[in-house]
């Protein structure tokens, strides 16, 4: 009989323990960030999934309660990971201190400092794995900058949904202050979401900070340089009804090209709109996220050991 992977075993056993999701505060060099945390029950975490929400949302985007099984926080903890969903700078607890938000250059060190604070207080297992949606994917790539050397060997990989390189809309249609852009582009067909998703989603909405909105149209120019500095594995997922970003063959080739050293994959999620984690496809997508994390762990464990220089001490 073939052996099951650790993820398959965990999926088979999931549901026996119900992890709690609780609010915590992260400290980043004098700035407080709010976050949601779910930890495995009665066991040390295998790794930490750090979830970064998109523009105009909150950390609760990853805690979908419209139906059982759709929350990344609950599922990840049941599968043996700690899941930390962070309110990005300018959202949640930090909104009062940062009413205009921060640009990517300034947000990245804040996130790194917040995760250093978390790692000093909580077990992190094999390391950190960034899971990001839409604008959160921009911050994930900026924070994963190998030149910053802030994560050392603890950053396992990056998994991004709802973000591309080439816009499928005119820049003025992007979400901005005072509105949510063309709201239907966030969702796609309404049949892709549980009936309660839109009612519950109202509590997740938050104004898009001015600085963040102003930087949005410049992403196609910022992207290549940021991507070129990432060294860990990266996976992009485009929903079947993604409407903000192009994901045709030419656009995907252009998306992958800047990554000089990272292993990059591009996947597609059927029966989903831009807000994958709020729809019926959430569980399927989240299991694929955890599967990619398992691949990153396997690649690291199976890597050929570095040859020691002759005469080096053991």
Please explain how this structure is put together:
This protein is of the alpha/beta class and 314 residues long. It is 30% helix and 18% strand. The protein has 10 helices and 8 strands. The protein has an 8-stranded mixed sheet, sandwiched between helices.
What Rg do the Cα atoms give? 19 Å
Q: Order of strands across the biggest sheet?
A: 1-2-4-3-5-6-7-8
**Number of E-state strands:** 8
Mean pLDDT: 89
Domains (count): 1
Order of helices and strands: HEEEHEHEHEHHHHEHEH
Helix fraction by DSSP (H/I, runs of at least 4) = 25-40%
Q: What structural class should be given to the helix and strand makeup?
A: alpha/beta
Quaternary state of this entry equals single chain
CATH topology: the name is Rossmann fold
Strand percentage lies at 15-25%
Q: What would you call the shape?
A: globular
Count of helical regions: 10
What profile does the largest beta sheet have? 8 strands, mixed
User: In terms of per-residue confidence, which ranges show pLDDT below 50 for 5 or more consecutive residues?
Assistant: none
